[in-house]
Amino acid sequence: MPRSLKNCNNFQDLKDLARRRLPGPIFHYIDGAAEDETTYQRNTEAFQDVDLVPNVLAGVENIDMSVEVMGYKLGLPIFCSPTALQRLFHYQGERAVAKAAEKFNTLFGVSSLGTVKLKDIDELIKTPKMFQFYFHKDRGLNDSMISMAQEANFEILTLTVDTITGGNRERDLRTGFTTPPKLTPKSIFQFGIKPAWALNYLFREKFELSQLSSHVNEGTNISISVGDYFTNMLDQSMTWDDVIELKENWGRKFCLKGIMSPRDARKAVEMKADAIMVSNHGGRQLDGGRSPFDQLDEILQEVGGEIEVILDGGIQRGTHVLKAMAMGATACSGGRMYLFGLAAAGQEGVEKAIGNMKNEIERDMKLMGIKKISELNPSMIRFR
To answer: What is the CATH number of domain 5-383?
Structure first.
């Protein structure tokens, strides 16, 4: 088991290091999922049911890992999916992820439940930025967040559509996780045995949900679970008509995150979205739902070539990325993929996570006998 960042050679090593550095409730918030967590486990296990078929003697000394996503050229076929509460995991938070993503010339997403102001991110990096949007009951708050993202020069708006109510995240119920953290006899012990985290949390920049702090109290000055936030704050009456209006108001690149059925993928094409993210929220919402990779082929059969299709979730290895790209995905994205690195060591940890993934993709492309990502195709995979 690695004791330092330099010895973290893969996803599991970074996860183990994060576990040692985070208080229990916070680690389990990242690692946990809904109910029995069967969907969470399947998100990664699904890749084991598809095998790669390599070619050889292809002259692979120089390779090109770049892809184009919504009009932006990325240096890697995987990007950092938007995730909430990042300064809770490490005091550098979204700033660390933004700078690491820029270093590797890939895309970075900021959550509506982000902990750094959007304008601060705009001043920090020059690479493309995605703002992940939750559709609240408070339409004034919705309008305010859209304006903030436009003024901060965010190029892509990604609406998450699978959080119409909070998932039953039983690990969080057991640990008592809330944001901000709520002190209980059990949690005080957990925070106390991780003094480095506790000192950073208490004495560095005050924790806030920056996009919400001037509008609502939930999650800013009272403790609330994320599940309660989704259930109480988000608009359960949202329909496709609301999404079409939101896209028109935004006026820039628009993506839907949480599409899992061919029917909904077809509706995304009909409303002229630029991309969909095939995602089940990391298994944190509907336990028993299909994994994104299991659904990818079905969705590509319906809308492939008509809209960009991004595979989100479960990716822990470079071969996982190549399998999705061979099937026909435009690109891949992940949250835990870099969050454990962030929790383990801030910006250096995120760079280690992305760097490990880059090295694996480069090596695996050469072993597959391809010089460009676009050379991957369905003939190079087999379903067991």
So the answer is: 3.20.20.70
pTM score, whole prediction: 0.94
pLDDT tens digits along 224-241: 677 788 888 898 999 999
- Annotated active-site positions, please? 281
Residue 382 tokens, joined:
């087999």
Which of left, alpha, beta for 314 (phi over 0: left; psi -120 to 50: alpha)?
left
Window from 65-74, 118-127, 194-203, 302-311 with minimum mean pLDDT: 194-203
Rounded distance, CA 261 to CA 171, Å?
Answer: 28
Q: Give the separation between CA 81 and CA 331, rounded to whole angstroms.
A: 11
Question: Is the confidence at residue 219, as pLDDT, over 50?
Answer: no
Sign of the Cα pseudo-torsion (220, 221, 227, 231, in order): negative
Of 51 and 190, more confident: 51
Residue type, 307: I
CA–CA distances in Å: residue 165 to residues 14, 26, 131, 136, 361: 31, 21, 21, 11, 36
In this model, does residue 4 exceed pLDDT 60?
A: yes
The sign one gets for the Cα dihedral 275, 160, 295, 359 is positive
* CB-count burial class (<10 Å; 0-12, 13-18, 19+) for 236: exposed
pLDDT exceeds 80 at position 133? yes
CA separation, residue 313 to residues 131, 330, 338 (Å):
18, 14, 12
Mean pLDDT of the region 129-140: 94
* Contacts of 352 by beta carbon, 8 Å cutoff, 6+ apart: 5, 8, 14, 341, 344, 345
Residue 330 neighbours by CB distance under 10 Å? 20
**Cα distance between residue 65 and residue 106, in whole Å:** 11
